[in-house]
Each structure stands twice: as C-alpha cells, then as structure tokens.
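Intended use. Records like the one below are meant for learning the mapping from a protein sequence to its folded structure. Do not use them to infer anything beyond what is encoded.
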Amino acid sequence: MRRPGKAYSLLEVVMATFLMGLAIIPAMRFMSSAIRTGQELERWNQMNVLAVAKLEEQLSIAADNFLTGSDSGTFSEPGLGGIRFAATRSMAEADGGIPDQLMVVQVTVWNDEDGDTALDASERQITYATKLANLSLYQNDT
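Structure written out for the chain above:
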C-alpha cells in the first residue's frame, strides 16, 4: 500500500503490470479475431459485387446476340488477386433452358486460395444464375 509521502514499491508496480497484462491479452486476441473476420467479410462482399457485375455483363452479351458460350478468367482490378470467375450461357434443357427460346446465364466467382485456377471444394464461392428469354421471337410474332 502507498504510504503518505512515499513512492510506490517495486512489488506494487509489478502487481499492477501483471493485472494490466491479464486484462490486455484477451482484448488483443479479440481484436485480432475481429480484424480477421472483418477482412473475410470484405472479401465476401467483393466477391458478391464482382459476381453481380459479371452476371450483368453476360446478360448483356446474351441479349445482344442470344448465343451460347462460356468465359472464365480473373479480375484485373488492384487488390483482387486470386479472385476468379467462370460464366456460362446455355440453352440446354438439362441446364433449365429451352433451345432458341430461353437461355440460362450462370456466373461463379471464387477465391482461388491455392492458385491452381480450378474451383476446389474447400474454396469460398458465390454462384448467381438467371434466365433470359429470346425477345426476337416475340417481336417476330407481333
């Protein structure tokens, strides 16, 4: 204990430091975990935005010429290293399309953690799909 007019003893300083350490260590672990979680959520958000953008791009291509096809690659924007995509435009009945009438457009975006350019089961992925009708059929019937 502190006596009037006297300084703190070495034992009091050591005990105070020890108690502060006990409080700070769990707080630092929590902060580290929170930072990692925030980074992961930011990556998921980036992947969602990129998947929607790529789906819109594929819909634009399909609406222009109504041709089937596929595309894959990486995103060139800085900070998106390791994020890849695969897109398909299909009229096959097995995919849910109707030949010359209904096209299925699907985009998958994934974080290629191992860098092998292939989507592995353990890698985070987001898939969006939609359908597009061949409007030229409706225009010709009017």
